[in-house]
Amino acid sequence: MNFSMAFETYTQALKVIECGDVDFVELARALVIAPELAKDWLIGTATAPSFPRFKAPPQGGITAWFTMLLTAIANSSEESFELELLPALHLYEELG
Known about the structure:
- Helix content is 50%, strand content 9%.
- The protein has helices at residues 10-19, 28-33, 37-43, 61-74, 85-95, and strands at residues 3-6, 22-26.
- The chain has a two-stranded parallel ribbon with strand order 1-2.
């Protein structure tokens, strides 16, 4: 039975694709961090996006952070996006 998985590096994704262990490679969060990632992987110029690291994130906190970053991208303000995890979670809850 095939399944999907999330990957952080080109090597991880390529390995499972080559052995047929997955139907597709999910890159949603990686593409939020590095929108040109798929193109860069295809031409061999990048191997992994730089994911933020959060100590002891609350339930839903990381999803809220990515949602607020997507909101910043949609508003063309991603260059000034500097929300830490907890402020992003609170803002997400306020807007919810």
